[in-house]
Design goal:
Elements lengths: L1 H13 L3 E6 L4 E3 L6 E3 L4 E6 L6 E6 L2 E7 L2 E4 L7 E6 L4 E6 L8 E6 L4 E9 L1 H11 L1
Parallel strand pairs: 1-4, 3-11
Antiparallel strand pairs: 1-2, 4-9, 5-6, 5-10, 6-7, 8-9, 10-11
Length: 139
């Protein structure tokens, strides 16, 4: 129950775009499901919770490490620092990865790796003009 409350509060606080929660124990709680579309130009926020945090966390985009933590020392290894941001909290085991703005090149797999287990999120980037046309047609 407490975990559900924390997740709901975080989703409400993050606000814009999609917020996706990935748990290292392979439970996924999300407001935007893996494989669903993120509009090009939107903000995507992924949260990986590792409980208990044992001193290792890595975000990978298409198998390339973009950010990692070893115990309390965290670093970003990205060629897109203007679009990718990483907010680790090693004391709680919560690791946020933000892509803003989402681009078509982001289409693919994003992994949260805890040193022995990997949780994969499939990012699908959609055309916002197509999405709004479809929504208008259904109204």
């Amino acid at each position: 129950m407490k975990m559900e409350s924390v997740i709901l509060q975080a989703a409400l606080l993050l606000g814009f775009g999609y917020t996706t929660f990935i748990s290292a124990n392979f439970e996924i709680t999300t407001t935007g499901n893996s494989g669903e579309g993120f509009s090009q130009g939107s903000e995507a926020i992924l949260a990986c919770t590792i409980n208990p945090y044992t001193g290792s966390q890595t975000w990978k985009v298409d198998n390339v490490s973009v950010a990692d933590c070893g115990f309390v020392l965290c670093s970003e290894n990205t060629s897109n620092p203007e679009r990718y941001s990483f907010m680790p909290n090693v004391s709680t085991g919560n690791f946020l990865f933000t892509i803003n703005p989402v681009e078509y090149a982001d289409d693919g797999n994003i992994d949260c790796f805890d040193g022995s287990n990997t949780e994969t999120f499939t990012m699908v980037v959609t055309d916002p003009s197509t999405t709004s046309t479809t929504e208008t047609a259904q109204s």
